[in-house]
Predict the 3D structure of the following.
Amino acid sequence: MDEDAFLKAYDPTAFERPALTVDLVLLGLSDGHPAVLLIERAEHPHAGRWALPGSFVRPDETLDGAAARVLRDKAGFDAIEAERTRLEQLYTFGAVDRDPRMRIVTVAYLALLPEAVFAQVEEENAALSAARIAVSWAGEAGGPVAAFAVRDRAGHEALPLAFDHADILALAILRLRGKLDYSDVGFALLPESFTLRQLQDVHEAILGTSLNKPAFRRRMLDRGWLVPTGAREAGTSFRPAELYRFRKPL
Amino acid sequence: MDEDAFLKAYDPTAFERPALTVDLVLLGLSDGHPAVLLIERAEHPHAGRWALPGSFVRPDETLDGAAARVLRDKAGFDAIEAERTRLEQLYTFGAVDRDPRMRIVTVAYLALLPEAVFAQVEEENAALSAARIAVSWAGEAGGPVAAFAVRDRAGHEALPLAFDHADILALAILRLRGKLDYSDVGFALLPESFTLRQLQDVHEAILGTSLNKPAFRRRMLDRGWLVPTGAREAGTSFRPAELYRFRKPL
DNA sequence: AGAATAGTGTCTTTCAGACACTATCAT
DNA sequence: ATGATAGTGTCTGAAAGACACTATTCT
């Protein structure tokens, strides 16, 4: 049986196709802690639960294109912000019953938002809320991830996520953690200029561990990706730290 | 505009959906070199070109399930072999014009086959051929990958790949390379028992570099994943190397 | 001056690369 | 014995962890 015979036997127009969507994990920092932008579902299925922003993929757009459209239409990014935001494909989720309405396969994307953008989007877009992420460290090899509402975290109650979006979120954190050390993702969450302490805090928040200060500074400075701005932190009641800017390696 | 309004506006049953397929990158070693199993397309589109084995995703199966089905039906794996083979999702390709017939989005999977399985499948399944992979190292950051027929490599002419399958193959090699150092993928290509030299050869073939022998041995043995079998290599005209078995870390 | 954090000097340990050396097997 | 590869001992240098120390700014 060769491929063409197979294609005839399974003529796609004659059979039902799964629906295809994209879902976006929009990560940022809220109070120095990792957080994600979520939409509260108003109607069922999963009414009252929180979902990642997403959309169906149209026949005439790429997957990346669909993800970029969600960024504009559902997260309210303007063209410039959307252009600047780097969307990275994360994984494709295809469990048969992941949506109770019908068979839907979703391609998950991950984007890291600078603190200012993250806060602004959450403020301007009433449909979106920032939810702090809490990671359970059961097995050290990447346990389950729970999301908490960043505003209503007095009781530390978990925000219920819709569909399999908790799995998607967990994978996003793991991906981020894996790339933290050898890529420039650590800078994507920070504003234009930042201190080394802020950078270290971001790394520690994502990794869930504490890092050695001199070693961290050495590694970061030796890479040559940091340019001192000459300016210093303002508004502290102690010695202000020097501000650095991230410059992509040549 | 909230999600439900959006869902109403884009009722998926009212609009055309992309078709969804899975494609498998079945990697193995041929003569110590990385190779992939390909199917020569008999009819157009892309007649005469070589394609990764794949299939449409059925409504009642997961993506992983569809990939496993291709392994059995198109690659001719029996149930036991298919069970043993670990399929890993690689990436989802969604360019609008990647297939000339219609809009098809494909989820690519990667599997590593032990030498014996690789050779056996190629021999028994007339539709499949092993093609050696050649990697161009233009930019050091992962340049284009070309596939050569392993049998007809006298002239070193590139095998033309169908659709965007060259891109898929290139990404598979990059993924493999990235995981080689911190995972156990290096063992998946080797037979049950193997020498440290064979293991090093596999690593060098995938990385495209030569490695330091004492350092390599130290790293591998210190990980505690290797168990000496007590037996030794046979059939050499020199000192036979000790054979090791891979044991998963506890 | 005191408090609080920024930033550095240095010792130790760990580990990869390099190189030379010894060990062992077939012929 | 010879040839060829397996396998190891050891030196060196690079880099991380630990710790203590100095520096700087605000109140």
About this structure: The first strand of chain B starts at residue 19 and ends at 30.
